Amino acid sequence: MISAACALAAACALPCSTNASMVASSWRLQPRTQREIQSDLDEIDSKISIALGQRIIATGDADALHGQAARLRRSFALMSRDGLDRDEVLQLEESVNEVRMRLKLEARRWDQSR
Predict the structure, then answer these.
(1) What is the pLDDT along the chain (114 residues), one digit of tens a residue?
(2) pTM for this model (two decimals)
(3) How many Å is the Cα radius of gyration of the chain?
(4) What is the rounded distance in angstroms from the CA atom of residue 27 to the CA atom of residue 85?
(5) Three-state secondary structure readout of 18-55
(6) Is 28 left (phi over 0), alpha (psi -120 to 50) or beta?
């Protein structure tokens, strides 16, 4: 999961005395971490489809969530071309968590409106 990627990022960080711009430019994630992020994105799409199939969320909500996930996937593809830095990983983690939270909120809202 992405939180594991952030823990790995913190453990692999350069010493504090190193120039911050040098740290950002020289630090790159392992390919395994990028695969974990890709897996999280696949999981989001799958959960949206399952929620729609089980009538937990409305079709319009599922379409909006799939659109948000697709935009996130495009951002991930652009960011990962030259490797992800820590800021990009954090941004992706926040975005993935935002989609997950929105899915939960839509499911609750749909359940309450029945």
Answers:
(1) 555 444 444 444 434 434 444 444 445 566 777 888 899 999 999 999 999 999 999 999 999 999 999 999 999 999 888 878 889 988 999 999 999 999 999 988 876 765
(2) 0.69
(3) 17
(4) 6
(5) CCHHHHHHHCCCCHHHHHHHHHHHHHHHHHHHHHHHCC
(6) beta
